[in-house]
Amino acid sequence: MNLQEINYAKYIIDYKSDKTAIIHDEGVTSYRELGQLVKQFAYQLKNNNIHPGERVVIVMSDRIEWIVGFLGCVYVGAIPTVISPLLKPAKYIEALDITRASAIISDIDRELIDYKSIKIFTPEDIMQGGELLEEYYQYLSDEIAVINTSSGTTGKQKFIAHRHQNFTNYLKYTAEAFAVAQDSMLFGTSKMSHVAGFNVSITIALGNQATAIITRKSYTQKLLYRLITENKVSHFFSQPGVYAMMSNVKKSLLVTTLKFAGCFSQQYPIEIAKRFKRIYGCGVSNGFGMSEAFSVVIIQQYDKDKEIVDDKSLGKPMPGIVCEVRNDQGTLCQKNEVGELYINTPCSATYYLNNWDNTKETFVGDWIKTNDLVYIDDHDNLVYVSRKDDFVKINGLLISVLEVEQTLSQHPNVVDCLVKVSKNKEGLAKLKAQIVTNTMNDTDIPGIRHFLAETLELCKIPKYIEIVNELPISIVDEIPKTWSGKKIRQIEEEVE
User: Are the CB atoms for 31 and 21 separated by under 8 Å?
Assistant: First the structure.
């Protein structure tokens, strides 16, 4: 069967089996049940005059209805446009404006998204049952089938258009790298509103007729351990902060099913990886991914016989992907010479919706220009250095430092400010703000945080805020374990 010539949603639900497809908060859903739910919702879409090529925004927490809604859209040829439910309501309206969506699938308050009488599908709508739609849309491989967004943390959302063939291409080149089989159990902590999240569940798991585990609950050490052990997870995908939380125990835990653990949002500190292997018995593989490339493209090949995988290296390109490191003149860099990473992948996005300037800058011929600085080491591994622009990566999300600084500067008591990345005692990257105020002795730090929260999402609010007399020429990259003895008053406050 040539997957390029059929509908990807149909390919998944054609596996008419009582095998569990998805484990979720409400129970389990088999492939047979999933197929029925998708066809029922597809009938609703068609009955509401949602036609092929029309955009349907999905703003929903990780639940079975998310997957049914997504696949239902693909089944009828509508284009699911995926954005995070954690953003400010204004971002939802912006998404509807830019995409000119015909409908929205959402589990948030209707009042927050009530917009021009647009059709709203709730979780109850999706699961209400009804007639089955047997007729599916037959894609051409180059047709746009899904629009995912940047995390929304970059100040202005980018709507990234992907072709239908990206599903099948991604399924093909990840098969060898992750060795997923029908009996595999996959769990990722990236939310499905992020391309890495829906690819773990929908593309890698369901595409290989394996089982995906999803939850909309807040992650705790106890919850993650329970989900992994009770469901015998074989493939785990997460971020450094989650690995740190899971490794914050003193005794080893009996987890015999883990075959693969990956960290592709940003590099992990080596001590966290060592603790994770000691406790869970599985090493962590570094890697690199981006939304424009349909998720992970570079990965370390994990060697179970080694004590730990090198935390500095990103690894090598996955099968079918080519990477180059170029200098500012566009010529190839030599080994150990820092340059910008360019990626050539069969899963490349096609364009940014209604954003031609950024499209021209990022998609250069067959290459994705990443804005990430790397070098190739003596073992032909790619090693990450930094970003070229003002963005920083925190827990896998790109955050504009400039946007945070601009918002801080609007506070009536802030005279000047500086925001950069610092590392805590675990070695994890956190945002730190240094602020010069006009009320040095009675500055209300909680009030500043509340001020920021009125405009910014939680992930953009600096973890550490320090009040200073004047800004330093450069900020210290490490947060000391203790700040005693400083001449200036410094305040550290954790964001839960």
Answer: yes
Q: Is the Cβ–Cβ distance between 116 and 93 less than 8 Å? A: no
- Choose the weakest-confidence range: 136-140, 220-224, 413-417: 413-417
Q: Over 50: is that where the pLDDT of 488 sits?
A: no
* Cβ neighbours of 16 (radius 10 Å): 12
DSSP state string for 321-354: -EEEEE-TTSPBPPTT--EEEEEE-TT---EETT
Cα–Cα distance between 65 and 359 in angstroms, integer?
32
pLDDT digits (tens, 9 = 90+) for 337-371: 989 999 999 999 999 999 999 999 999 999 999 98
Residues 302 and 401 in one domain: no
Residues 479 and 341 in one domain: no
Question: What pTM was computed for the model?
Answer: 0.81
User: 80: closest CA among 37, 144, 29?
Assistant: 144
What's the mean pLDDT in 34-46?
Answer: 97
Max avg pLDDT among 136-150, 279-293, 301-315? 136-150
Residue 197 and residue 219 in contact, taking contact as beta carbons nearer than 8 Å: no
Within this chain, do residues 376 and 401 fall inside the same structural domain, yes or no? no
Are 123 and 178 found together in one domain?
Answer: yes
DSSP state for residue 111 in the 8-state scheme:
H
For residue 245, the SS3 value is helix
Task: Give the CATH number of the domain where residue 425 resides.
Answer: 3.30.300.30
Q: What is the rounded CA–CA span in Å between residue 25 and residue 123?
A: 14
Q: Do 199 and 138 belong together in one domain?
A: yes
How many domains does the chain divide into? 2
Which residue reads 């599908």 in tokens? 121
Q: Do 376 and 470 reside in the same domain of the chain?
A: no
Based on DSSP, count helices (H) and strands (E) in the chain, helices before strands: 15, 27
Q: Which domain holds residue 19?
A: 3-386
pLDDT of 324 reads 96
Q: Give which of 13, 72, 12 is closest to 47, Cα–Cα.
A: 72
Q: What is the spatial distance between Cα 388 and Cα 191, in angstroms, rounded to a whole number? A: 26
The reply to whether 346 and 404 lie within a common domain is no
Question: Which residue type occupies 39?
Answer: K
Q: How many Å apart are CA 237 and CA 265, to the nearest integer?
A: 10
124-133, 224-233, 269-278, 335-344: segment of lowest average pLDDT:
269-278
Q: Please give the structure tokens belonging to residue 379.
A: 């073992």
Looking at the structure, tell me whether residues 374 and 342 fall in a common domain. Answer: yes
